[in-house]
Amino acid sequence: MPVTDRVKQIMSWYGSESPGVKANLVRLLNHGTLAGTGKLVILPVDQGFEHGALRSFEPNPAAYDPDYHVQLAIESGCNAYAAPLGFIEAVADKFAGQIPLILKVNNSDTLAKVDPCSAITSSVRDAQRLGCTAIGYTIYPGSPLRNQQYENLRAMIEQARDVGMPSIVWAYPRGAGMSKEGETAVDVAAYAAQISAQLGAHIIKIKPPTAHIEQAEAKKVIEKYNVPTKTLADRVRHCVKSAFNGKRIVIFSGGESRDTASLLEDVKQLAEGGAFGSIMGRNAFQRPHAEGLKLLQDVIQIFKASA
Amino acid sequence: MPVTDRVKQIMSWYGSESPGVKANLVRLLNHGTLAGTGKLVILPVDQGFEHGALRSFEPNPAAYDPDYHVQLAIESGCNAYAAPLGFIEAVADKFAGQIPLILKVNNSDTLAKVDPCSAITSSVRDAQRLGCTAIGYTIYPGSPLRNQQYENLRAMIEQARDVGMPSIVWAYPRGAGMSKEGETAVDVAAYAAQISAQLGAHIIKIKPPTAHIEQAEAKKVIEKYNVPTKTLADRVRHCVKSAFNGKRIVIFSGGESRDTASLLEDVKQLAEGGAFGSIMGRNAFQRPHAEGLKLLQDVIQIFKASA
Amino acid sequence: MPVTDRVKQIMSWYGSESPGVKANLVRLLNHGTLAGTGKLVILPVDQGFEHGALRSFEPNPAAYDPDYHVQLAIESGCNAYAAPLGFIEAVADKFAGQIPLILKVNNSDTLAKVDPCSAITSSVRDAQRLGCTAIGYTIYPGSPLRNQQYENLRAMIEQARDVGMPSIVWAYPRGAGMSKEGETAVDVAAYAAQISAQLGAHIIKIKPPTAHIEQAEAKKVIEKYNVPTKTLADRVRHCVKSAFNGKRIVIFSGGESRDTASLLEDVKQLAEGGAFGSIMGRNAFQRPHAEGLKLLQDVIQIFKASA
Amino acid sequence: MPVTDRVKQIMSWYGSESPGVKANLVRLLNHGTLAGTGKLVILPVDQGFEHGALRSFEPNPAAYDPDYHVQLAIESGCNAYAAPLGFIEAVADKFAGQIPLILKVNNSDTLAKVDPCSAITSSVRDAQRLGCTAIGYTIYPGSPLRNQQYENLRAMIEQARDVGMPSIVWAYPRGAGMSKEGETAVDVAAYAAQISAQLGAHIIKIKPPTAHIEQAEAKKVIEKYNVPTKTLADRVRHCVKSAFNGKRIVIFSGGESRDTASLLEDVKQLAEGGAFGSIMGRNAFQRPHAEGLKLLQDVIQIFKASA
Amino acid sequence: MPVTDRVKQIMSWYGSESPGVKANLVRLLNHGTLAGTGKLVILPVDQGFEHGALRSFEPNPAAYDPDYHVQLAIESGCNAYAAPLGFIEAVADKFAGQIPLILKVNNSDTLAKVDPCSAITSSVRDAQRLGCTAIGYTIYPGSPLRNQQYENLRAMIEQARDVGMPSIVWAYPRGAGMSKEGETAVDVAAYAAQISAQLGAHIIKIKPPTAHIEQAEAKKVIEKYNVPTKTLADRVRHCVKSAFNGKRIVIFSGGESRDTASLLEDVKQLAEGGAFGSIMGRNAFQRPHAEGLKLLQDVIQIFKASA
What we know:
Five copies of one chain form a homopentamer.
Chain A: H1 5-12, H2 19-29, E1 40-44, H3 47-51, H4 53-57, H5 66-76, E2 80-83, H6 85-92, E3 101-104, E4 106-107, E5 119-120, H7 124-129, E6 134-139, H8 146-162, E7 167-171, H9 186-198, E8 203-206, H10 216-224, H11 232-242, E9 249-253, H12 260-272, E10 277-279, H13 282-285, H14 289-306
Parallel strand pairs in A: 1-2, 1-10, 2-3, 3-6, 6-7, 7-8, 8-9, 9-10
Antiparallel strand pairs in A: 4-5
Helix pairs in contact in A: 5-14, 9-11, 11-12, 12-14
């Protein structure tokens, strides 16, 4: 499909990038129902690794099968499907060329008690041989293993660029000096978006920010300049602004809410706040098929309406 | 021998793999008494390294000799023989081409008190020069050294793939936050199978899962959805399902049971639960030769009957 | 422009360097209002990474935009603009060739509680592909991670030299054995300048030294030889002397002072003490545009007058 | 000299090895008084590094000189001379071709208090340029640094094999969970021999095992199966059996005993137990020259008689 | 100049070395007033890095300038000048070919509280591009970071050899288990010389040993064999003997003594004890120029007289 003005505008912010990386960014933006709008909805399925198959797939047992997810992503009109190595290997050949694939190159499980730092479980070379469009990498800003994670990400982005692949950063702040609610605090989420952008992320994924403010210095600034943080839309707006004044693509997860109404209300707030899209996993694949499909389509329509 | 429909079906789940890796997977499935059935019985002998020669071989002193094991594997009709570098070097030339060899590339001993993490004791290059068909690698999910193990495995699988060799993962959960009985809990064993599959293992080896449930969140899900975990067959079924809905080869060790009757009863439960086979070491080579041989043949027949 | 006698003199101290590195050092010295004077004023913007976008840019929201800073540096007549990877990527193509760019290759954030050591967030290769003139690297002398930082810097300088790029070292002493005020003590700041010079830095950036003396042995020497440390100019003179008797380029940050008068007074002292220039970030970009622009121009004029 | 039947038999156990490694193993077995018998006596001199020159050489000051040792090894008819880099460099050119040299590639000193792990102090490349026939490497099974040691050994053996050089492993169990007398316990010594063989050692050097049994599980097995451990010969027999049923060359150090009679009595027990030879350092070079020479010759004769 | 018999004799101890390394060793021995005598006096200036410029150079402010030192070394007739990267870079081009340069490739500062281990601050490649004749490397035997230091030294010596450059080891015992006075104890200093020689050092630099004996086992041996340790000459003799019976070049620092008479008395003792020379920094460059020059010349004459 031709490149729309909005996509051209977005791509203009990535002017220093190579044509190869730009081409794959355009591919992500030009696929699915939201093609050409500059918005993205991605189906990510790394919960099997992160929480176990039982907790992830038993609510909708069809989801034990790797085929299920990529089919759901295709059917619902998502822009892309993201998963760890095993799940991508299980479907890459069978569904080749049907939807952009994102290889989640690092992952964590909940069996071990370790400082926040995902293991690197696949490579850019894997992403290439499997026909992927981009790689995904999780960082935990606030972790005592921060340097190791940022440095591995740096190397990963460089390798991906060398083969024309953009990098998507999942930024989940956590660590010794941070309170539990601080992990999704508006100041912390916005800071994580800024760090990701400075690290060279092409697309940044954060959690919907809460009204909590974690850092004393941030609180002072928010109060002094009356930065709006009351509604989710306000907070999303601040996070997007923190990623180079909106010149980097920032997308948000669906959050903890479970009933469909409040979930869609949250998505509307994301869209209103200027989010570039959503990444929605458990809320989609843990519902019965028809319900999960409808939910993804509704989310996509909300972003389409806001484009 | 020609490739049977069942083997073709199994191979269809590995569609994204290279022809070289597929060829060696077929070689494993097409050797021995179980050739073509899609089932595998493997004789593994790493106990000399893991527990010392005395404890491993004194019960049947013929087993001190490296030749003993590979001969037993050939004679009994196993699909393959697996061992650490030294044992493979001792027989690779003499028995070349008589049975697929699996090089166990990492190993632990019980002399040192260290966090669970095997030392890498041989390489894919060793596997090649010794004419092996696959490599074997142990991970300890739950260990504080998880990342190091997963990352080394990732590199090892990539190197093995480059030379057309599949990778077999021994997944033994253990570590600081886990109870002793949790190491074989059904939720933990199934989780370990899922992790191994996501890491790109071609064949996954776990211990027979017990009815114990280790993780509180898992317990809730099992109760909510009435996941059957009462019989060993039930639990095996859950573990196999947890490995991509049965689309990855999962095999089980013989467990702790020592008298032949209960051991064979367990194997029947494994077969009933959909296990792809067994890996049986101590129970075979610590018995007098005729007895060990018969045991292996009986186990093989159980899987043959279930195929 | 032709090379002035002063620039020739400065370059004579770098006699052992390669023509490529020398050429880029001359480029830095020959750009902007201070071109040819041997003085430098650089606009650095890494505060988004180091403290978050909110604290850094909310005081002057135009500064959320990456374009803002490089434009300010160009407009004000600075010698160069320095920033982390993301900010440089955002402007390198659009403003190509308009001002020398310095890629800050390592960075820290304030979310994690870790020993002082910045993560390496970009590479010499990045600097090359983005058309940069030099790289910048932060060391924290006094940190328990000193060796790792010095060794990474060594490798970085070598790589940069290989492609004809000079290295600028930000030297910020801190660490377990050092008091908070010791971090800017005159003896410590001068020591940091000496270390940086010995490590092969082409340009050294330190904080304006205070009259505090941290080390007992240094105190004895200062008293015995009546080393003047009373005025800021005195202390700057000592720091410049400590960098190979003034034969390495040493520049200073603007310090903590916030009101314009005292800030400019400090800059005058820097100039009087023989500083080669200033590096001024927050004090410039956190002011309204016209005010920030004027401040930078005034600073530049002070150095011009002292040249 | 021609290869004897016994040497041919020994070499048959190393069938998977490359011709280059085999050739150098034969060279070791075919040198000196014991040539062709399948027995080895090696003079090792790493005590200068391990305990200092004073403690090692002052009892016989001629031994301060590096020439002394290699001359003693030649004169006494040893199979080989083993030493760290410096000592080998001091004599390799002067005595080139006169006796097989073994480069001890890792070493420890007693100045530092560290976990048991020798530093790698030379390389296979050094061994090559100095004309050595084999390398020697010390492991400390039981050490918390076990994995690092085994992994470095793995790499070293691979490099040595690539240039046709066999590897000799000095296996000295020690570490946090082990009692002092456990370090030479018969079960531990035998376990160390098994580990070394599994790691791919071509020749294994252990200490003469004592009657102490360290591990509770080992004690049970020894009692249950009446494994003889009463005489040194019994224990040596068990250790040799533990190294692939005697299919790996296992040699023993002279132990702590100092008076000649008891020392030679121990050597007789070693020979009776099936040891492939001895490695004798301090007991030889700390005696006056004539006495040390005679001792080595007597030890050699004991093994010759047992061959 | 032609090679004297004494230099030929010294070189005969390095028979296994490559012609390139030998050529540069001869260059060091054949330069300056002591050319051909087999003795060496070297001016080392790493105190700026190790203690700061203030403490090092304020006593004689001309010494702030990098040119000062190399000129002093040339003028006084030293064999070589040794310094860290920055100082060598500052003079290598200007004084090219006038005196052998030794690049100190690792360095420490006193700002950080860390286990004894210098950072690697330059490379063999740096030494080559700067026209150096040798590299210098500091080890701290006794440090918990011993292995890292020895292993890095091993790699450094190998790289230097590859380009025909000898390696000089500064051996300064210190660390957790050692008393302050133990660092210069005669047994410890001699042990450090032995370790350095075994590690492959071509020239060894230790501190003048005191009469203190640190290790209980060493004390027993010294007493048993009446090893003379009363005079400095006695102790120097023991240290030189400990370095391969005098077959490695061992040189000594000037020690702590400050008044010229006692300093020269010490040097006479060094010469009498068979030291191959001195390395004298602070005592030379912290004196006024004429005085420092005379001191160096006097030291050189003492060694000349003893040659």
